[in-house]
Amino acid sequence: MEKKRIVVKIGSSSLTNTKGQIDQEKLAEHVEAVAMLRESGHEVLLVSSGAVAAGFARLGYPSRPITLKGKQAAAAVGQSLLVQSYIEKFSQFNLIPAQILLTRNDFSKQDRYKNAYATLTELLERGILPIINENDTVSVEELTFGDNDMLSALVSGLVHADHLIILTDINGLYDANPRNNPEAKKIDYLPEVTDEMVAAAGGSGSKVGTGGMKSKMMAAKTALSLGVQVFIGLGNGPRKLINIINGDGDGTYIGKDGLTAITNSRQWIALHSEVAGTLYVDKGAEEALLHNGKSLLPAGIFDMDGSFQKGDVVEVVGPNGVLGKGEVLFSSDDIKNIMGKRSEELVEEETLPAKVVIHRNKWVKHNRGN
Ligand SMILES: Nc1ncnc2c1ncn2[C@@H]1O[C@H](COP(=O)(O)OP(=O)(O)O)[C@@H](O)[C@H]1O
Ligand SMILES: N[C@@H](CCC(=O)OP(=O)(O)O)C(=O)O
């Protein structure tokens, strides 16, 4: 059997009841299924929601709070309860969980991003089961992942997972929300996710879930762009995750076989970096970057905006619009002096030790993971 790296995301609706309590039976079933996946030799990372849903009742809220401070306070209480339950239940299978709470900054700062990768990899190598959630108690609304569906997609890209399994309270994507439309038909397989499919999917059907199918489809689109296949659905009993991996899951499979994994530096540039400036390039440079897999040389740049340092990420604009983003090997001051000049001129002038402005390995085309 081929060992796979699998990210399993469990939604609030699959872990808690509407009264604001953890449903211990549901949680135990997920734990057993994860344990079976581990026993069969696979690596597993869990992205578990449910902190707010498991905590709000203990704070005296009648339902899931809507204010930021209410959600953050509920998450502080609920996250500890959740992890306590996980530790207890996983110990029956001799599995040791590790709690990892991430914020948007852990992805947007490149050193933190690299560090998150190193830590997760170290945990997996030592046989630990990472249980990841957003650090809700300190995240502010403008700086969140949106929801845990997106977090699970970003995590699955970060660790180069083979599969992302999104467990929820419905057996996959339907052509309309089946809670409102009894005629809705289930979709078993989708080779790709388009923006139209994301727009057509509906919101949450429960009082504890957030985002609904729309956010799962957005997450699936992101995961596919990072080379990770996706399953959205549910299942029963301890073999449910093994069945899903074997292609017998009750849900929707998304993505073709043999997707290309994207390096961490390209993922970071594409999805997490902040753009520090713009380079305007000519037709020849556009051709080199978009069609010939080449690096960007000074000769193709004719104008620029912004003030940036070596190592920052800039946007590159061609004659027909945005071409992509890349990490620059020179500061904006240096580029001002070298843009438009051919490499031979620069060598003669001894202006530069190297002549590439953006190396092709640190370049990401617009709307593409690679
Ligand atoms: N086209 C659709 N197909 C399936 N489910 C849909 C669709 N549109 C909306 N939904 C809703 O999405 C819900 C699952 O999302 P959500 O409530 O956020 O769960 P979770 O807590 O697992 O993230 C389903 O219960 C369903 O009501
Ligand atoms: N981080 C939040 C989860 C938010 C969320 O995305 O929930 P869900 O839609 O149930 O996956 C929590 O633990 O309550």
UniProtKB/TrEMBL annotation:
Listed GO MF terms: glutamate 5-kinase activity
Presence of keyword Transmembrane: no
Root EC class: transferase
Annotated EC: 2.7.2.11
Pfam families in the cross-refs: AA_kinase, PUA
Similarity-based family: Belongs to the glutamate 5-kinase family.
SUPFAM superfamilies named among the record's database cross-references: Carbamate kinase-like, PUA domain-like
Catalytic activity: L-glutamate + ATP = L-glutamyl 5-phosphate + ADP
Function in brief: Catalyzes the transfer of a phosphate group to glutamate to form L-glutamate 5-phosphate.
InterPro entries given in the database record: AceGlu_kinase-like_sf, Asp/Glu/Uridylate_kinase, G5K_ProB, Glu/AcGlu_kinase, Glu_5kinase, Glu_5kinase/COase_Synthase, Glutamate_5-kinase_CS, PUA
Principal location: cytoplasm
Residue stretches in coiled coil: none
Keyword Transferase part of the UniProt annotation: yes
Signal sequence interval, chain numbering: none
Pathway(s) it belongs to: Amino-acid biosynthesis; L-proline biosynthesis; L-glutamate 5-semialdehyde from L-glutamate: step 1/2
Subcellular compartments: Cytoplasm
Protein residues bound to ATP: K9, T168, D169, T210, G211, G212, M213, K214, S215, K216
Higher taxonomy: Bacteria, Bacillati, Bacillota, Bacilli, Bacillales
Alphabetical list of CDD domains matching this protein: AAK_G5K_ProB, PUA_G5K
Protein name per UniProt: Glutamate 5-kinase
PUA domain mapped to chain residues: 277-355
Binding site for substrate: S49, D136, N148
Keywords: Amino-acid biosynthesis, ATP-binding, Cytoplasm, Kinase, Nucleotide-binding, Proline biosynthesis, Transferase
Membrane-crossing segments per the record: none
